[in-house]
Amino acid sequence: MMRAPAEVRNATINTNSGNSQVYDHTTGIPPMPDYNGRVLAYTATAAIVASGVLQGVFQDWLLWAAACALLWPHIAHVISRRTFLHRVARIRQKMLFFDCLIGGTFMGLIGLVAIPSVSVAVMLMFSCLIVGGVRQWLLGSTLMLATLAATVALFGTASSLEVPTITAIVSLLATGTYICVSAFYSHQQARALLLAKTQIQNQREQSIALSHKLSKYLSPQVWQSIFTGERDVRLETQRKKLAVFFSDIIGFTDLSEEMEPEALTELLNHYFNEMSEVALKYGGTIDKFVGDSIMVFFGDPTSRGQREDAFACVSMAIDMRKHMKIMRQKWRSQGIKTPLEIRMGISTGYTTVGNFGAENRMDYTIIGKEVNLASRLESLAEPGEILISYETFSLIKDRIMCRDKGEITVKGFAKPVPIYEVVDFRRDMGPNRSFLEHEHSGFAMYLDSDKISERERKAILLALEDAADRLRLEEDLR
Questions:
Q1: pLDDT at res. 296
Q2: What does the pLDDT read at residue 133?
Q3: Which PANTHER family match (predicted)?
C-alpha cells in the first residue's frame, strides 16, 4: 500500500525500475527499498484488519483483504522489477498512486471507521511526502479521496465509526512503527547523502587544485580550452595563419660565466615571469622557454583576426622592449653590471598548429617555415631591435612606424624576404609621445606618462628638480 522514502547510497548506485539506492557505509545500515517499505506498510494494514475482524468491528470477509495485503507487495515487486514496466519513467511515483487507490478503497470498505482509516491515510500521506514531495502528496490525496468517496457511495459507512481499544491501539502501533522505521532510514539516507556531498566537494577541490597545478605546464589559453571541453586531448593539427614571436637575451652567455647558478636561475626566472605577464596581457600563447629564449604565437587557440593578432604580437614586443629597460635598472641596482638586452623577431604566415608527439605524451606547438623565419629574424636583430617580416609589416604599418631593413635569404623561401625594423607606435612618435628613456653611466630614466597618476607626477617633478639642482651646483663648482 505505502512505499518507503527515496533510496540513496553513497558508494554504489544502481538503477533498476527507475529507483536509485544509496548505501551508507558509515553506519553499515542499508536504506529501506520500495519492496521492504511496501511489505512493512501492508503488514501493518493486515494487522489492523485482523484485529478489527477478531473484535467484530469488520466483517469476516475482510480477512481476504488482509491476505491480499500480505501478497500485494510481492506482486508489485515482480511487476515493477521483472516486467517491461521497470523501464517506465517515474515508476516509483506511479506505483505509489496505485497504493493510494488501494488505500482509498480499503477505507471505504471498512465503512470509514475512524482510527483505522486515519492510520492508513497517515501512512499513505507520509509516503507521498517523502517519495515525491508536495506534488505527489496532492495527487495521491486526490486519488485516495476520490476512491474513498466512490467506495462509500457504493457500500455506505459503518453503523459506528468508533472502534474497541485494542483495535485502536493496534492501528496506532502499526502506523507508528511504519513511520518510525521509515523516518530512521530516511535519516540514515540523509547522512549518507551529506557524506557523499562532502566527499564530492573534497574531490572537486582536489581536482581544482590539481588542474591549477597542471595549468602551470600549459599556456592559459590551451588549458582553458581543454578544461572547458572546447579542445580534445588527441593527436591532431590544423593549418592556421599565426603571428610567431621569438626573443632571447644578448649577453646572457657572458653573464652565466660571472654569476653563480642559483643567482642566475633566479634572474632568469624573474625575466621569464615578467615577460610572460606581458605576453598574457596581449593574449599571446606562450609556446615554450628554451634556455634564455621565449617563443610566443598569436591566433590559436583564440584569434581576433589576422590584423589584430599581428598588431597584438608587435605591441607585445614593443612593451617587452620597454619593460626590459625597467628590469635592467633593477638588475643594475642589484650589482649586475653586464648590460642585458633582448632581441626579437616576428613573422606572420600559415603554420601547422596542434598536438604533436605520442598518445601518452603530447606537446602543443607549431611548425612551419614561418617559425623558422621568426627564429632567423630574432638571430639577426641587434640589441633592443625588433625585426618583422613583410607579411607582418603589411598588417600593422598603419599603426606602427617601421623602418625598411632590406632583404635576407632564408632557407625554405624561394625568394629573398623583405624585413623591417619596428620603431614605435605612431601615436608615440613626435613631440606628443608618452614614452621617453635615457641611459648613461650613472643615470637612467624611463618615463611613460600615460601610466603616471597626478599624485605620482608631482613626486616625479620634485625628484627631477632636485636632480637638476644638484647637477647645476656641481657644474658651478667646476
A1: 95
A2: 85
A3: ADENYLATE CYCLASE, TERMINAL-DIFFERENTIATION SPECIFIC-RELATED (PTHR43081), BLL7624 PROTEIN (PTHR43081:SF18)
For the chain, the straight-line distance linking the first and the last C-alpha, in angstroms and rounded, comes to: 112
Q: Long-range contacts for 90-96 (Cβ within 8 Å, ≥24 apart)?
A: 90/18, 91/17, 91/18, 91/19, 92/3, 92/6, 92/17, 92/18, 92/19, 92/34, 92/131, 93/131, 93/132, 93/136, 95/3, 95/34, 96/2, 96/3, 96/127, 96/128, 96/131, 96/132, 96/136, 96/140
Helix axes 165-215, 220-227, angle to 10 degrees: 150
Q: What's the length of the chain?
A: 478
Confidence at residue 442, expressed as pLDDT on a 0 to 100 scale: 66
User: What domains can you pick out in the chain, each with its CATH number?
Assistant: 15-202 (no CATH), 239-433 (3.30.70.1230), 435-478 (no CATH)
Question: Can you give the pLDDT at residue 33?
Answer: 58
Question: H helices within 249-385, ranges in order?
Answer: 252-258, 261-281, 306-333, 369-380
pLDDT at position 334 is 78
Task: Compute the distance between CA of residue 74 and CA of residue 34 in angstroms, rounded to an integer.
Answer: 11
d(CA 418, CA 392) in angstroms, rounded, equals 11
- Alpha carbon 22 to its chain's center: 26
CB–CB of 105/149 below 8 Å?
no
Distance between CA 331 and CA 86 in Å, rounded?
A: 74
Determine how β-strand 386-389 pairs with β-strand 341-358: parallel
Q: Would you state the pLDDT for residue 432?
A: 57
**How far is the CA of 97 from the CAs of 69, 93, 377, 473, in angstroms?**
16, 6, 79, 101
CB half-sphere exposure, 465, CA atoms < 13 A? 6
Q: Which residues of the chain have pLDDT under 70?
A: 1-33, 229-231, 429-451
- Is the separation of the CB atoms in 343 and 314 below 8 Å? no
Cis previous bond, 301, omega within 30:
yes
So what's the pLDDT on residue 429?
A: 64
C-alpha separations of 464 from 154, 162, 393, 458 in Å: 107, 104, 38, 10
| Whole-number pLDDT of residue 192 | 87
Four-CA torsion 149, 152, 157, 162, nearest 10 degrees: -50
**Residue type at 54?**
L
* Cβ pair 120, 78 in contact under 8 A: no
Give 397-401 contacts, CB < 8 A, sequence gap 24+.
Answer: 398/426, 399/311, 399/425, 399/426, 399/427, 400/311, 400/314, 400/315, 400/318, 400/424, 400/425, 400/426, 401/425, 401/426, 401/429
